[in-house]
Amino acid sequence: MRKDNLMTKQQLIAEEQKRLFKNRKVVQLNKFIKGDVSPFTVNDLKIFKLIISKVDSKDSLFQDFYEITTDEIRHLNINEKHLYSETKKSLKRLANIYITFEENDSFREVGLIRNDFRFDKYSKKILINFNDDMGEYLINLKKNFFMYDLIDIVNFKYKHTLKLYEYFKSNSLNVVKLKVDTIKDILDLKNKYIRYTNFKKDVIEVIIDEINSSSNTLYLKYSEEKVGPKVEYIIFHVTRIKNDAILEGTLSENRLYSNLYGKECNYLGKYYTIENINLENLLIVLKEQYSNNHTNIVSESKEKLEEQLKKLLPNDFKKKNIDEIEIDEIERLSAIKDFRLFKSKVVEQFKGKVVGNHMPGFDKEVLLKLEEDSGYLFDTSVGKIITKEESLEVWKYLYKNKDKVGLVVEDKVENEVYKYINKIIFITKKDSFGNKESIKYIVTDIKEEADNKGLIKYRLHINNLEDPTQDVEKSKTLLTFEQIKLFIEENSVEKNYSLHNE
Question: Which residues 6+ apart lie within 8 Å of 321 measured at CB?
Fold first, then answer.
């Protein structure tokens, strides 16, 4: 049983990303997104955005150098074994390849960073300075610029995702209708993907899946519009979410209505979007569409402020019944490609079989199985299909805990084995010079697996406490309960303490 306070590797990385990138903003001129960045990799672009986040857009001149660190680069989710050499390659590409802008009937090439960055092999710091060409796009910005939180893009895996993400960030529209060819231009894919079906499958759906699963501030849906038999337009439906609460890890009072930010409304005959709702000052800030004009609405109380919001956005305050809420949640999950694939594979593999117990909303001993014909979840204790609401919670749980699918856990065995989770142990290893060193580990998980004879055994998962961002190590062989018990006791903190004091 996993302890509530135990953090997974992904959670540790996410917490470190929040710490490193808190308040780091990428600010750049709107037209910078029109540059052709096709020669660069997604890692190049993420490193470049990290450098940009160090720039104060209000400055009149660039600083002599901007400092980034290898810790920051590692937490851009750059999965390279040789981070040092890969970072040098990225910086050289950024220094030696210009990006191209098409301006009317001419082309302009712009240099990014200078080729005199300082990278001390034995230091975590890298000092970089910008090419003067970049001043137009990054400093002394007064209008026609946009910004976003660096943390929102660090987990993107595809450069096309970053490009379309920045396009949506550079405007405030909630419905964006674009020609297919225009989208290709934005993504530097001109004259590529001749077949629309390939473009949709390999580009559009991949981008939307990634933005929806990785970004904290945008959520996308799309529809198509045909001219004759051919899809000519893609209509993007953009939900914009303020991210300050996510960075802080808590939801402040002023973020109570953050789901309304970016919504379109009509006020005194003009069309606006909701830009901010400040409960402390009882203020609603509206931004006029297609301009930078702002209008403030001040209320007498929180009740009056909510009344005003209901007038501006009546549909958003319409009370939803349980079925509507459930449909919204199902649509959100169904938009995630991994969830769709996961559910279909589980149904295919476990039709007519038990998918597990200890499910949310059910007693621990209740076994749930997938009905043979329909594939619906079935409560074996009462002999009936569970409700839609219960089914949704179970599928969400299984999606987050894929290792639990098909696992039937007995409480007695579980309590005996899993009491070792969170135990601190010391393991002796050899360093690069052949010297022995004692390294502190934490037991992060113990998972049940069947061996080749069908007997239930366990695989131990441990994480290096001196560098928790390293990959979790797993025991190479399956272990019995007695073997795990002996291993933990032989390498425990208490055992090591007594040996050091003998």
Answer: none
